[in-house]
Amino acid sequence: MKAIVVHEFGAPEVMKLEEIAKPAPGPGQLLVRVRAAGVNPADTYMRTGTYARKPTLPYTPGFDGAGIVESIGSNVTNWKPNDRVYLNASSPGTYAEYIVVDAANAHPLPERITFAQGAGLHVPYATAYRSLFQLAHARPNDWLLVHGASGGVGIAAVQFARAAGLRVIGTAGTDRGRELVAKEGAHYVLDHRSPDMAARVAEITGNHGADIIVEMLANVNLGADLKMLAMRGRVVVVGSRGDVQITPRDLMSRESAILAVLLWNVSPDEMASIHAAIAAGLENGTLRPVVGKELPLAEASRAHKEVLEPGAYGKIVLIP
């Protein structure tokens, strides 16, 4: 089978399309024919060897994917061949034609959700749910600012928040991105490059401020975020690419908090709750993954470059 293989950490070009042996499922496992693999910023950090998790070389990247069950191992009773699934792989490997996963890491993919959409479910939607509800304890009527709302996690956060009754402000850096954020349910949409953005947040919220800010690029925005918080507000850091200087008095004066999310810290029970919420949202139509671009598997290096570029728009997926 064909797969992307990384033999050394480094730039996107270290990813090579190679022919490797097709795996076989063991007890409690599924062999899944991957129809689409999701590309996440975390995949790029892992490829450089500087991420919180460092895989053993050589490895195949990718934790998100969707496809069809090809075969099952012993002791698997809740899946059968030809079932449609989306994956939260516990170890990387979705950038390939086939992957073996534990049966517990596969989830039903409704017929009306495409494989490309399914490949954009686990990391973005689990991160959004974890941030909003398990960490920030979001409640109906809270003011939520999604800072960088046009990418995979941002869209997921907007959709979850609207379904839960929050008042949502989303930001994006391009007209196209802002149109998408509005379409997916944000009550207000702002340009996060605008110098008056903080004033607009204050105006929109009646000087209350944001109860929760979901932040995609903390090294650029965190200092300013703290000044936009409501009393006892929370910033949840989803992404950061460097250091940042903040003023602790901005936290003290509001008795506010900075939280952060890393999915690898989520317990099995918490993850089960997350995927139950995702299943409910897919069933009732409140969750609708947005695919911004589909690329052939051979263009993984291009995908890793583009996923970090400004102007995020939905999810980038690879098609084996």
Structure description:
By secondary structure, this protein is of the alpha/beta class. The chain folds into 2 domains: 151 residues, Alpha-Beta Complex (Quinone Oxidoreductase, Chain A, domain 1), CATH 3.90.180; 141 residues, NAD(P)-binding Rossmann-like Domain (Rossmann fold, 3-Layer(aba) Sandwich), CATH 3.40.50. 30% of the residues lie in helices and 28% in strands. It is built from 10 helices and 15 strands. Strands 3, 4, 5, 6, 7, 14 and 15 form a 7-stranded mixed beta sheet that branches. Strands 10-9-8-11-12-13 form a 6-stranded parallel beta sheet, sandwiched between helices. Helix 10 links the parallel strand 14 and strand 15. Helix 3 packs across helix 4 and helix 3 crosses helix 9. The longest helix has 17 residues. It is globular and about 60 Å long. The protein starts with a strand and ends with a strand.
Topology:
Blueprint: E1 2-6, E2 15-19, E3 29-39, H1 41-48, E4 64-72, E5 84-88, E6 98-102, E7 106-108, H2 115-118, H3 122-135, E8 143-147, H4 152-163, E9 167-172, H5 175-183, E10 188-191, H6 197-204, E11 210-215, H7 218-228, E12 229-237, H8 248-252, E13 257-260, H9 268-284, E14 291-296, H10 300-306, E15 315-319
Parallel strand pairs: 8-9, 8-11, 9-10, 11-12, 12-13, 14-15
Antiparallel strand pairs: 1-2, 3-4, 3-6, 3-15, 4-5, 5-7
Helix pairs in contact: 3-4, 3-9
Characteristic terms for this protein:
single chain; alpha/beta; Quinone Oxidoreductase, Chain A, domain 1; Rossmann fold; 2 domains; six-stranded parallel beta sheet; 10 helices; 30% helix
